[in-house]
Amino acid sequence: MKDFRAFRVHLDGDRSVARLERLRLDELSAGDVVIRAAWSGINYKDALAATGKGRILRRYPLVAGVDVAGTVESSADPRFRPGDAVVACGCGLSETHDGGFSEYARLPADFLNPLPPGLSLREAMAIGTAGFTAAYALHRMEQNGQHPGLGPIAVTGATGGVGSVAIDIFSRQGYRVTALTHKPGAEQYLRSLGASAVQVLDGTALGTRPLEKAVWGGAVDNLGGSVLAWLTRSVVPLGNIASIGLAAGPQLETTVMPFILRGVSLLGISSGDVPRELRIALWQRLGADLKPAHLERIIDREVDLDGLPACFDAYIDGRVTGRTLVRLG
Ligand SMILES: NC(=O)c1ccc[n+]([C@@H]2O[C@H](COP(=O)([O-])OP(=O)(O)OC[C@H]3O[C@@H](n4cnc5c(N)ncnc54)[C@H](OP(=O)(O)O)[C@@H]3O)[C@@H](O)[C@H]2O)c1
C-alpha cells in the first residue's frame, strides 16, 4: 500500500486542529498488527478530541477515533493471521496511540479482540466503546448484587450511544428501565429500545434532602453533576450506580448518607481499564446473550471519512441520538 486517508489531530500553539490527510504506515504509532479498517463509530470522547473541547490526546499529532474494526493485513504476533476479523476499542487509541478514523491501523496485538462469532464488523462498531461500556456496567453491577427484583434501572443520557445500548441490553436481561432524557421528542425511540418508562429531565425537581424517596433499583449514569448526585439519594438499599460519563459535568456533590444508611454502591466504570480476558469475554457476550436487539434502530446514520468532520458539534451540544457509524472500507 502506498498511502491512505486518516483524520488526524495536531496541536497548533494551544489549539488543537483536526483534518483529513494522507499518511503512510510508517507514520502510525508502532504496533505488531496491521489492520485494513472497515468501520469505526463516533463516541462523545471523539467529539471532545476532534473539537479540542476536552484534552483527550496525550501526545500530538495522533489519528483520532477510539474504536476500529477491520481485517488483519499482516501480523508479527502469532495470535493473529492475515484475514482475521478484529475489533479494538479504547486501549489508548486516540490518547497515546494512533486511532481508528483511518483506512489502516497499526496496533499492538494486546489491543485487539477477535470479532465474536455473533457480530459483523459493522455491528461491532455500532456497539463500539459506547456499547461495550454499557455491557461492562451491567457486568459490574451484577457482580455487586444487582438483579431485576431490586427495581427499575434509571439510564441517563438515554438517547446517546451508551444510553441507547444500555436500555437495550438491560431490558433484554429482564430489568425494567426508565430512560431519563433531555429530549421531549425521544419517547417513542426510547420505548422502542426497551424502556418501560421515559422521564424528561428538563425542569425535574431533583430535591435537596440527603436521602430522597428510594425509587431506583440502580442506575447507569452518563451525565455526572446534579443528576448523579440525585441518583445517589434515590437508589434503593443495596442498589448500584454505574458512573460512566460526565456529559453534564465532572462535579459530584452528595453526602455519605446513601452509602452508609442504604448500602448504595457507586461503581466507577473505566472501559479502558478492563483486563484483557474480561474484555474478550464481554465482547463474546455482546455477540450472544448481550447482543443489542435493536442495533439497526440505534444506528442513526453512516458517514464516510469526508462526512466525519461535520459530525462532532452535535455531540458537544447534546443533539445526538443513537450511534453514528464511520465507513472506512
Ligand atoms: N467511563 C467510560 O469508560 C466511558 C466510556 C464511554 C463513554 N463515556 C462517557 O459517557 C458519556 C456518554 O457517552 P456517549 O458516547 O453515549 O455520548 P453521546 O452519544 O454524545 O450521548 C450523550 C448523551 O448525554 C446527554 N447530554 C449530552 N450533553 C449534555 C449536557 N450538556 N447536559 C446534559 N445531558 C447531556 C444527551 O442525552 P439526552 O438528551 O437523552 O439526555 C446525549 O445524547 C460521555 O460523558 C462519555 O465521555 C465514558
List the helices and strands and how they pair.
Layout: E1 4-12, E2 15-23, E3 33-41, H1 44-51, E4 62-63, E5 67-75, E6 85-89, E7 104-107, E8 113-114, H2 121-143, E9 153-156, H3 161-172, E10 177-181, H4 187-193, E11 197-200, E12 216-221, H5 225-233, E13 235-243, H6 257-261, E14 265-268, H7 276-286, H8 295-298, E15 299-304, H9 312-316, E16 323-327
Parallel strand pairs: 9-10, 9-12, 10-11, 12-13, 13-14, 15-16
Antiparallel strand pairs: 1-2, 1-4, 3-5, 3-7, 3-16, 5-6, 6-8
Bound molecules: NADP nicotinamide-adenine-dinucleotide phosphate.
Report on this model:
The protein has 329 residues and is an alpha/beta fold. It folds into two domains: 4-115 and 294-327, Quinone Oxidoreductase, Chain A, domain 1 (Alpha-Beta Complex); 130-271, NAD(P)-binding Rossmann-like Domain (Rossmann fold). Helices cover 26% and strands 28% of the residues. The protein contains nine helices and 16 strands. The chain has helices spanning 44-51, 121-143, 161-172, 187-193, 225-233, 257-261, 276-286, 295-298, 312-316; strands at residues 4-12, 15-23, 33-41, 62-63, 67-75, 85-89, 104-107, 113-114, 153-156, 177-181, 197-200, 216-221, 235-243, 265-268, 299-304, 323-327. Strands 3, 5, 6, 7, 8, 15 and 16 form a seven-stranded mixed β-sheet that branches. The longest helix has 23 residues, at 121-143. The two termini are 14 Å apart. The relative contact order is 0.16. The mean pLDDT is 96. NADP nicotinamide-adenine-dinucleotide phosphate (NAP) is lined by residues 43-45, 129-130, 133, 157-163, 181-183, 222-223, 244-248, 269-271, 315, 318, 320.
